Amino acid sequence: MKGRVIPMASWEWILEFLGTLGAGGLFLGLIIEALGIPFPGGLMTLLAGILVNQGRLDFYHIFAAALLGFNTGATAAYFIGRFVGEPFLLRFGRYLRVTPSKLEKARFWMYHSAPAFILFGRFIPMISNLTPYLAGISRLSFPQFFIYNSLFAAAWILFNLSVGIFFGHNWGHILSLVHSRLLLVATAALVVFIIVACVRHLRHRREVLP
């Protein structure tokens, strides 16, 4: 849901996958996304919007499947948190990229404001995938969780579908532009990385040296 870098081949594969399986493919993909497992669910939804624009998928079917899939995955995560609890996260957290510090930070946000955490927690870097689990662990009532989760899911899905629909006509041009500029972008990113690393190294030496 947050800044995952997806290789170009994956974009094309997801388009083919969605074009073949349609709403069912997006339904399954968003179950995985909502469970907090690293997965390009947002990209899938955006690409589904492109296929809607092209007339290959129906908007209402896609939206319903995406909303149902996301709520299904989030509900499963909520009940895992409620009935299995924190031991589940500590034991299988590596699959969700969970560390004790992330768990503690997520717990703080959850207890500070449960509704805000559910609505906006998936936008918080490093703890987004813990949102439904922490809701269950904290014993937040399921109706309250479901309402807030549905509001977030509907807004997030509509946004990604809208972006895909809006850019659908120019998708081929965008892909060719990205392909042609990929080497340039990668080189620029490498240069920026080297500069930042050098600045940090020099700053560290100044702090260490008297």
Can you describe this structure?
This protein is mostly helical and 210 residues long. It has one domain (8-170). 79% of the residues lie in helices and 0% in strands. The protein has helices spanning 8-21, 23-34, 41-53, 59-83, 86-96, 100-112, 114-120, 131-137, 142-167, 171-208. It is globular, with a radius of gyration of 20 Å. The chain starts with 7 loop residues before the first helix and ends with a helix.
As for the number of domains, it is 1
Distance between the termini: 45 Å
Low-confidence segments, ≥5 residues, pLDDT <50?
2-6, 177-182
**What is the overall number of helices?**
10
Structural class: mainly alpha
- Specify the biggest β-sheet: none
Number of strands: 0
State which percent range the strand residues make up.
under 5%
The helix/strand series, from N terminus to C terminus, equals HHHHHHHHHH
Which word captures the global form?
globular
| Helical coverage, percent range | over 70%
How many whole angstroms does the radius of gyration measure? 20 Å
Mean pLDDT, nearest integer? 76
